[in-house]
Amino acid sequence: MTTPLEHAAQTVLLDVPPMRALTVKQPFADAIVHGHPTLGLKGIENRSTPIPAPAKHLGTTILIHAGKALHELGEDVDWEGRTDARMAIIGTARLAACHLDDGGCCAPWGMRDYYHWRLADARPLTTPILDVPGQLGLWTPDDDVLAAVHAQIQGAAA
C-alpha cells in the first residue's frame, strides 16, 4: 500500500506533465497569491526578458516561487500577519496570457516596456514548501517538491 505522498509523487511523475515554477522576488510573490493590502491580487508579473512567456505554457497552472531576495520596489507592503517566505513554493496561478507593454497598460501592476505575464486564479498553498532554490524563467522543480505541492492540492480538494 502506498502512502498519500507516494501516491502524489506517482501521479505527478506518471499522469500529468510536471508543473513549471516562476520565481518572483518578495513581496511581489506574496502579492500574487495573497494580495497587496491596498491594490489586491497582483495579476501581472513583469519580465524584462527579450522573449515572451512560452506559448506552450499559456493556460497552464504554474507554481509561484518566492525568491531569496527582497525587491526594492516592494517596501510599501504591510508584512504584518504574513510569513514573508523566501526560497519557497507559496502558491499556484494560471499563466493566462502574455504581451509586451503597449505604453501604460495593465495598471497598477504593469511596468512600461516589460513583458506582462497575466496571472489568474491564484491560490496560496496551505503550507509553503521551504528551502527550494529558484531559477530564472519557467523551471521544473524537483520531484519531491512537485509531490509535496500535489499532495497539498489534493488535500485541499478533498
Structure, described:
This protein is an alpha+beta fold and 158 residues long. It has helices at 4-15, 28-33, 143-157, and strands at residues 21-26, 44-47, 61-70, 88-100, 115-129, 138-139. Strands 2-5-4-3-1-6 form a 6-stranded mixed beta sheet. The chain is globular, with a radius of gyration of 16 Å.
Brief summary of the model shown:
With 158 residues, this protein is an alpha+beta fold. The protein has helices at residues 4-15, 28-33, 143-157; strands at residues 21-26, 44-47, 61-70, 88-100, 115-129, 138-139. The protein is globular and about 40 Å long.
List keywords for this structure.
alpha+beta
Topology (elements, then pairings):
Blueprint lengths: L3 H12 L5 E6 L1 H6 L10 E4 L13 E10 L17 E13 L14 E15 L8 E2 L3 H15 L1
Parallel strand pairs: 1-3
Antiparallel strand pairs: 1-6, 2-5, 3-4, 4-5
Based on CA atoms alone, the radius of gyration comes out at 16 Å
Q: Name the helicity range.
A: 10-25%
Number of strands: 6
Run of helices and strands: HEHEEEEEH
List low-confidence stretches: 7-15
Sheet with most strands: 6 strands, mixed
Kindly report the average pLDDT value.
82
Strand order of the largest sheet: 2-5-4-3-1-6
Oligomer: single chain
**Class from secondary-structure proportions:** alpha+beta
Number of discrete helical segments: 3
Strand content: 25-35%
Shape, please? globular
First and last CA, distance: 20 Å
